[in-house]
């Protein structure tokens, strides 16, 4: 048969005889569909429209046969734990032996449930440690540091350094020994020979003010006034921090003012508990640590003169590596020959200095310097004191 071309809405469809043969084969492969009584219509013209409608009249659909599943195998019966299951061998069957290892009983706890199961890798061993904390019933008081130190001393297992000597320096204002807390009285500053004051005790005194260089002015003036004023909290002398409320006479030590819950402000003012505002204040100061360089302004020349004028000195005066021992003296007839335009040479002057050795490099020794009189002129003597050698004495008419 020849190919027929149908036209529908400007579209061409090629209907070949091979396609008809294929459709006839498909019809034969469906056994359940009955043949339609209608006869096939012969093609009338070449320009017949195609509606894509099958010429078969479908009355029923083919029903697929259900596949019968094979019978289920009987369940396998495992032998109980700690035993080996043995299957008797038949002439046509394979003999199989199954051994089951005993399973350890797991201890169920809240911690084990949360942890993931641990994996065991080849060539590695695992050890599990269990920690039990026993809390005794009733009130338990932990041991203090002193009890722990005594216990370690009895055991003899701890190495402890030698105890630090006690600091006997005492503040002239609050009368407490040693350096105070950083957020409290703070460190001790030297005011005069064997006179010490806490930094905050001096800084928060009414008369004292601080310069930009860190010098505290009028500390001695505040000390003189404090010797006559009594603290409202501890009733001892030396109080210098007064309330800044007008006509209020309450005065405290710095440490006593903190204990009495006085209010300190950033502009270096303080109000007693009777006059402080209720609640918190924006300008309130609650931290008293001072990490900047602060020192007491004093007349060092007068201080040195007071040390020299004392006959019997219980203190050692030291400047760097120079230790002062004696100042000596000058008689009226010696004044003309025992001085120059820059220095005085008193007879009996003695001082020692630690300086580099003349014999060994990177080693120091002691040089004892003194002034003596010979033929009405000063004689300068230097005595070299070095361990392992005899004392070497050097003399000359000039200090150079």
UniProtKB/TrEMBL annotation:
Entry-linked Pfam families: FYRN, zf-HC5HC2H_2
InterPro entries: EPHD, FYrich_N, Znf_RING/FYVE/PHD
Residues forming coiled coils: none
Domain named PHD-type: residues: 168-276
Catalytic activity: L-lysyl(4)-[histone H3] + S-adenosyl-L-methionine = N(6)-methyl-L-lysyl(4)-[histone H3] + S-adenosyl-L-homocysteine + H(+)
Keywords: Chromatin regulator, Metal-binding, Methyltransferase, Nucleus, Repeat, S-adenosyl-L-methionine, Transcription, Transcription regulation, Transferase, Zinc, Zinc-finger
EC number, UniProt record: 2.1.1.364
Keyword Methyltransferase: yes
Annotated protein name in UniProt: [histone H3]-lysine(4) N-methyltransferase
Keyword Zinc: yes
Lineage: superkingdom: Eukaryota
Subcellular location: Nucleus
GO biological process, one term: positive regulation of transcription by RNA polymerase II
Entry GO terms, CC: MLL3/4 complex
EC class (word): transferase
Organism: Sula dactylatra
